[in-house]
Amino acid sequence: MSYEKRISRANPGLVVLVLDDSGSMTEFLPGTSDAKYLWVERDLGHIFKELLARSTEQRGDGVVIKPRYYVYLIRYGSAPEAWAPEELDIEAAVTKYAEAGNSLGLGGHLGGTDAEAALRAAYQFLKKAVASERYSNSFPAMVFHLTDGMSQSDATQVAKEIMALSATDGNVLMLNAYIGTQTSLSYTGPEDFPGYIAEEEAGPSEDNLRLFRMSSPMPESIRRNLVDDGIFPAVREGARLFFDVRTREMLKHAIQAVGSMGSRADRTRT
After folding, report:
1. Where would a tag sit more exposed on the chain, N or C end, judged by fewer CB atoms within 10 A?
2. Confidence bin at 235 (pLDDT 50/70/90)
3. What is the pTM of this model?
């Protein structure tokens, strides 16, 4: 499967965000004096605006927005909560985010960390979405799962079910980002991050290993965009869509991987 379909108004991209909002998300992100959830909200807000820019065209003296991206967001702790009843086109998502004071409603209010329940909710949404007229011929949907702690449930099986869903251009992609952990991979930051290829690099933490196994291999089209756009210029072929987030810079760059389904040139397409 190619993962080469260009994102367009006729064949829009779908991003499903599954965000840990357990109590530990109120702790400071390493090296900062702000809570983890605040950094997540800020950086995702920047990505929303970038995706809106890719959907905006100059038309005479004004602009026209042709939604090329849709967003569905689930917050979770002990149980999942949807941000909106259905997916929002990117203009509606940016408006909702702005009207809420540049907030996604995170705040560490949702108790424990039940990743299986959250990803099961994502699966129930996705199995209908990927078969729909809007997305069935698009670049495959991407699930971005961000967590900062051990889950009280094992989401491995439902992650496999998500990755087995497919559109004509490939299977649904699963990206996992783990805040505040250390692994066996040596790197200093986004500029020399090589990506995770082998389990021995992702370990020794069992939580890391589970998230690594739950992550899709990175399609070459996404890897090229990450390199060409300078997001992760050193990422290797064959890396998984798995990131450990040791600093705010790694959080910002890992979140940018969501937008790398299509290059900035996509905004010129119908």
Report:
1. C
2. very high
3. 0.94
The CATH superfamily assigned to 13-268 is von Willebrand factor, type A domain (3.40.50.410)
The predicted pLDDT at position 180 comes to 73
Token pair in block for residue 245: 């987030």
Say whether pLDDT at 253 is over 70: yes
Residues 27 and 36 sit within 8 Å (Cβ to Cβ)? yes
Please give the Cα distance from 124 to 119 (Å, whole number).
Answer: 9
Indicate if the pLDDT at residue 34 is higher than 50: yes
Query: pLDDT grade, residue 31 (50/70/90)?
Result: confident
Domain limits of the chain? Answer: 13-268
Burial of 54 (0-12, 13-18, 19+ CB in 10 A): buried
Residue range 146-188, pLDDT digits in tens: 999 888 999 999 999 999 999 999 999 999 999 877 799 999 9
Closest by CA position to 211, among listed 122, 124, 163, 145: 145
Short-list 128, 149, 125, CA closest to 73: 125
